[in-house]
Amino acid sequence: MPARRKPFSHKQKKEQLKEKRQANLAKEHDATSKEQRKLPSTKAKQDPSHFFLRFINDSDAVVQKNKEAAYVPFNTTGDSFSLDQHVYLLPSCCADIPRRPEGVLRMSKEELLQAETAVFEAFFKGISPDLDVIATEYCVFECNENVYRQVWRVTERSNLMCIVADARFPLAHLPVSILRYAKICVRPVIIVLNKIDLAEKDSVDAWVAFLNKYVGAVLGEVGGQKQFAIMTCNSMLLKENKEEHKHFMEAFVSASRALSGISTPRRITVGFFGQPSVGKSSLINGIYGKKVVSVKLTPGHTKHLQTHYLPLSGIVTGETDRSFVLCDCPGLVFAVKGSPRPLQVITGVFPLARTREFLTPLRLLVECVPGFKDDIVARLNLDSLYTRYPELNRKKPDSPGEILELYAYMWSYFSKGLTPNINRAGMELFKLVVNGSIAYTVYPSKDLDKNLNSVLENLPNISPAIYVNAEEARDESESGSKSGSDSECEEDTSGVEEF
């Protein structure tokens, strides 16, 4: 049997702790005297909100006005949503994405940060110096300069851009500003319409036909070769179906090689761009066939660029495990004047948790998407609901407030005084809309082609900038600065790599 423990009093425990503290102090004193103790790092910990999405929200007056119109009946005779599609084609309505300042290889870290901040401030003031004008005339767009820094770095790393869009309404994710940015940076483009399982096939075909004309007219040709390719996919199916995965990978790698002009043995980097919640990270997971990037339903989950080597040996002929690199970029919300803000709630670009009212997005969907009202009313199961709550008015709901009230009764969402909590019901309803459980599809408007022709006639010319790949730029900088001192070259290069 083990020896019996001796009683240990509280006083003895205090003496034991005191002896340990004295021994530790003696060790620290010895280490300091021998200069073996490391100084604590002066670098502050990174703020977790450093890369959070930052928006200019609606004012209290606008929110109150929308709430007062909660029980105004729907107006399904108009087609206002389709008439607004042309704003995504107008350079005057789509603010150009700011470009990173030139000469970054010759700047120190502090100079680079100051130059980038100046570029962002000029971009923000160029939209409008008045915040009230931005809040009323523009959609919600990204106001965090650190997100733009991530976009610039992914652009420099990439040989071509892969822009991901939601197939249910791709034009809202492909304004002319992102295409002009690709042309300025001299990057060919692959457009991937993701989530095709949530959209109608006729709608996807119609959008592909329109985008071929739209993107081709904006990007133009170089040496008689077009600078874009359009693909469709279901990122969830890529992980489940091996044949679908192999077919998509062969087409994706072939298009990337052809557009970039980089032959098979050489390494190629593809940057993934797009708005939040379009499925960039999900598409990368589908390409890999497994989870390599964290994914959440909350928009803006990816907060920092991520680079991954794509193992292609055995999947695509001639490729190796180190010849293809994917770079995931945080979502960037584009600034578009005239685009309805409730649309960003519907498409999942704006976080539902930060949405102050869901009445206007519901009105937009019902009035502009044929058959959507019948779908959400059928989900209510009104007969069962009226049996549970006999006091309810048996009139068919004809306003966003009435529909959300019935959903609050169905899910038993009540606030104080047993009044239906329509805000919570709206959040749960739009969770189903965003993840595709409640389907909606937007077709190209009838006059969109006509608007495209008139816009392209007045499209301002773009002068491509010297915005080459980061590795090529570093090589050119080192070769061009041989006349200078070696120490200066090392200082400039290390400043960029450190950042």
Number of helices: 20
**Total E-strand runs:** 8
Segments where pLDDT lies below 50 for 5+ residues? 32-49, 473-499
What proportion of the residues form beta strands (DSSP E)? 5-15%
Report, as a whole number of angstroms, the end-to-end distance. Answer: 63 Å
* Series of secondary-structure elements, N-terminal to C-terminal: HHHHHHEHEHEEEHHEHEEHHHHHHHHH
Chain-averaged pLDDT: 80
Structural class: alpha/beta
What oligomerization state is this entry in? single chain
Instruction: Classify the helix fraction into a percent range.
Output: 40-55%
Quote the CATH topology of the domain at 86-337: Rossmann fold
Main sheet attributes: strand count, strand direction, barrel closure: 6 strands, mixed
Biased composition (Basic and acidic residues): 14-45
GO molecular function: GTP binding; GTPase activity
Biased composition (Basic residues): 1-13
Function: Possible regulatory or functional link with the histocompatibility cluster.
How does this structure look, described?
GO terms for molecular function: GTP binding; GTPase activity. Possible regulatory or functional link with the histocompatibility cluster. With 499 residues, the chain is α/β, with parallel strands linked by helices. The protein has helices at residues 10-33, 60-68, 80-83, 109-127, 131-137, 145-157, 176-184, 201-219, 235-240, 242-260, 280-288, 341-346, 359-368, 372-378, 382-388, 400-411, 422-434, 448-457, 470-480, 486-498, and strands at 160-166, 189-194, 221-222, 225-226, 228-232, 268-273, 306-309, 324-328. Helices cover 45% and strands 7% of the residues. Strand 1, helix 7 and strand 2 form a beta-alpha-beta unit. Among the domains are: 86-337, Rossmann fold; 341-435, Conserved Hypothetical Protein Ylqf, Chain: A, domain 2, CATH 1.10.1580. The strands form two sheets. A six-stranded mixed β-sheet has the order 5-2-1-6-8-7, with helices on both faces. Strands 3-4 form a two-stranded antiparallel ribbon. Residues 32-49 and 473-499 have low confidence and may be disordered.
